[in-house]
Amino acid sequence: LVRLRSRLARSQNTLGKGLLNLLSREHLDEDTWEEIEDTLLTADVGVGPTQELVERLRERVRVLGTRTPEGLRALLREELLTLVGTDLDRVVHTEGGVSAEGEERPAVVLVVGVNGTGKTTTAGKLARVLVADGKSVVLGAADTFRAAAADQLQTWGERVGARTVRGAEGGDPAAVAFEAVREGIAQTADVVLVDTAGRLHTKTGLMDELGKVKRVVEKQGPVNEVLLVLDATTGQNGLVQARVFAEAVDITGIALTKLDGSAKGGIVVAVQRELGVPVKLIGLGEGADDLAPFEPEAFVDALIS
Ligand code: GDP
């Protein structure tokens, strides 16, 4: 929590502080509520959730007559938590299974997202967390369009002690994904993490490609997680991307990167609403340790601390 707070502090808690300052004004008049709305919108919370939050806060402040700083902070904390959601399944599911033939199966996690969002870095960091948890991991470099991506993933693999399966440059991403899972089964690995290509050249191209990767992988068993990596600094653009990916493949969780460099933490709320899928992981920097599970309480506390 301390680390989260310090990482978010530089950018994020302008949101919480701004809201608290506004709420603490002597007169909570119409202009002040509008400023509160603007503050939330600027932080990318999104129009619908912003209106909900403001309406509820307004009503509760009016009914309860809350005016003390502690009282207002507590109300804001509660309402922000409600907005972020405290009862969503935020576990990254990495429990393998057993095939019909009684053979052990690794869990399969697909990592998808537009290039540059931090997809490969997130896959690498996640591999590190899993290995530290005592799991054996195989990495699949299915981003065959960017040779550097496979090199980058392989470097992560070497660093954390995970084998990387890669294909020829320009080769079929689905073939690499299939091969990675095959290797995972052969090695009786616990988890296979597949880094996919994120070229948004054409929507249908992406949909066909991702859909094929998933279908091909599923020939060997279920896919446990499809994590969509989104760059928090891209704001509404990120939401448009998210929609395209969600049409291409069933997303089960969101990894929100670069929260350390963005004052727009409200995107957590907006993207969950947009996709109906929980944020499970957050990226707080470029370093190997800078991936954290998303915990609503810690997040909201960091915002308003
Ligand atoms: P990909 O093209 O989506 O695979 O993106 P990369 O994993 O290559 O990351 C793109 C850039 O974003 C790299 O310079 C990463 O170090 C950086 N990056 C990734 N995650 C984070 C994060 O959480 N915070 C910050 N500040 N940078 C990040």
UniProtKB/TrEMBL annotation:
Keywords per UniProt: Cell membrane, Cytoplasm, GTP-binding, Hydrolase, Membrane, Nucleotide-binding, Receptor
Keyword flag Metal-binding: no
GO terms for cellular component: cytoplasm; plasma membrane
Domain of life of the native organism: Bacteria
Signal peptide range: none
Localisation: Cell membrane; Cytoplasm
Main location: membrane
Catalytic activity: GTP + H2O = GDP + phosphate + H(+)
EC code: 3.6.5.4
Keyword Membrane found: yes
GO MF terms, alphabetically ordered: GTP binding; GTPase activity; signal recognition particle binding
Membrane topology classification: Peripheral membrane protein
Family: Belongs to the GTP-binding SRP family. FtsY subfamily.
Protein name: Signal recognition particle receptor FtsY
Record organism: Streptomyces hoynatensis
Gene designation per UniProt: ftsY
Span within the parent record: 93 to 397 of 397
